[in-house]
Amino acid sequence: MSFPDTRHSALLRLHDRDESVRRQSFDAIVDAYWQPVHKYLRLRWRETDENAADLTQGFFSKTIESDTLARYDPAKGTFRTYLRTCLDHFVCNARKQASRTQTLPLDFDVAASAESAEELFHREWVRSLFSLVIEDLRASRDDLRFRVFERYDLNESEVRPTYDELAMEFDVTTVTITNYLAAMRREFRKAVLSRLRELTVTEREFRSEARAILGVDV
Amino acid sequence: MLSDRVLDRLRGVIDAPDLEGTRYELIEEVGRGGMGVVYIAHDMVLGRRVALKILNSTAEACTLASLEHPGIVPVHDAGSLPDGRRYYAMKLVQGTRLDNYRAARPSAADRLRTFLRICEPVAFAHSRGVIHRDLKPENVMIGEFGEVLVLDWGAAGRMDAVETVAGTAGYMAPEQLAGITDARTDVYSLGKLLEYLSVPTDAKPVRAIAAKASSTGAALRYASVLELSEDLASFLDGRSVSAYRESLVERASRWLSGNKTLAVLILTYVLIRAAIFFFVRH
């Protein structure tokens, strides 16, 4: 099984006439943004884990209900920024409603700048995007190359094994380890671009996001 | 979910250039700036190490290739990576950065001569219509054999063009903030570099030259790098400098220190004549 080279924009497919296509597209977007939204609510809005999960669920339900995602206009900015702005409005409204019945918590970080909120959301979004890509790669490549990549580039420990140690562990030459890692990194980069294509609408937005994440002009 | 450590590692992995299909093999990253990332790479065809700069356009490589000067790092090769980024390979310069050179406390004469050699490639670039726009200690390298190289021409622009804002705070001319640049923009940065290389005990004319070069108003500076270096060379040759008005005592003292033999001869002559006069009279 090989990794799909080209993905079509899920955001564009939200306008499809076919209900099942729209549903699939919405699921793809939720897959990519669920964790960033949840983490953003935890860190930026200082919600508890449970509240953040409820708010995330509520936010995405609301976006289906009010067709928010389909109203995104790429001419006004990236989808990521649009979604974050919608999320901020959603949380403000939710808190206003809650304040009618209970006291607002005063510890949330109202002083945090818009830029730091954007950076936070961006970082979590990249984390989610990379996680999805790694799962795609894991599903499509259950071979030695992926295991080498996992042992080296996905290794959680501060000190990673050397190429020589990996060569001994996997019973291949050091050159093979170098080649496997180079190939997997190439595939990872390609897969990230492919996922990115799915989560952007216009070519301009795709290029801008690619530059923000990969630092490259594609 | 991925930890912050793995996330940063993957961002590094994804950022690292894919040199597949090129003649280079990546060794390590050595520098990163707003204009690109520099790596050490192995040139598999010629079997040597090169500095490989990855950037988003070939403009810098073309600018650099048009500037053939011993004080400017030569470009060997340029091309595109499979991911669309551009690269160019240049000579890997081994040596000491200007900030480290200064930390080794060289003599005043050495410092000033080094500064003059920084001016040479900059003046050459100006003669070709190119301004560096980001002169600072980190962008000057003193090579193994004492050669001085001006690096990182990523912010360089044509002298006659209105450019985007580029430069480094502390070395950037005030007008650069408005995107206005000409030869005097680099004169300002050179003035700041001279100030950086100077120590409080340096002669007043040297400090005056640095102050004139880094005047806030462009019209108050030297009109060209050549004028600046000529003024400093005058100081090194024991002549007066345009940036500093000497007192009579300073002028006499400078003349004496530059003409010691002549002064001794004149003094000897005067003493002998005085002795003869005194002997004849008595």
Q: What topology emerges from the helices and strands here?
A:
The complex is a heterodimer of chains A (218) and B (282).
Chain A: H1 19-43, H2 49-65, H3 79-99, H4 114-140, H5 144-152, H6 163-170, H7 174-198, H8 203-214
Chain B: H1 4-15, E1 24-33, E2 36-43, E3 48-55, H2 59-65, E4 75-80, E5 86-91, E6 95-97, H3 98-103, H4 108-127, E7 130-131, E8 140-143, E9 148-150, E10 157-158, H5 183-197, H6 204-213, H7 225-236, H8 248-258, H9 260-281
Antiparallel strand pairs in B: 1-2, 2-3, 3-5, 4-5, 6-8, 7-10, 8-9
Helix pairs in contact in B: 4-5, 4-7, 5-6, 6-7
Strand content of chain A: under 5%
Topology pattern of chain A, helix = H, strand = E? HHHHHHHH
**Rg of chain B from C-alpha positions?**
25 Å
CATH topology of the largest domain in chain B: Transferase(Phosphotransferase), domain 1
Brief digest:
Chain A has 218 residues and is mainly α. Chain A has 8 helices and no strands. Chain B folds into 3 domains: 8-91, Phosphorylase Kinase, domain 1, CATH 3.30.200; 95-236, Orthogonal Bundle (Transferase(Phosphotransferase), domain 1), CATH 1.10.510.10; 248-281.
What does this protein structure show overall?
The complex is a heterodimer of chains A (218) and B (282). With 218 residues, chain A is mainly α. Chain A has one domain. Chain A has 8 helices and no strands. Chain A is globular and about 65 Å long. Chain B is of the alpha+beta class and 282 residues long. Chain B has 3 domains: 8-91, Phosphorylase Kinase, domain 1; 95-236, Transferase(Phosphotransferase), domain 1 (Orthogonal Bundle); 248-281. Helix content of chain B is 41%, strand content 18%. Chain B is built from 9 helices and 10 strands. In chain B, 34% of the residues are buried. The mean pLDDT of chain B is 87. Classes of the chains: A mainly alpha (218), B alpha+beta (282).
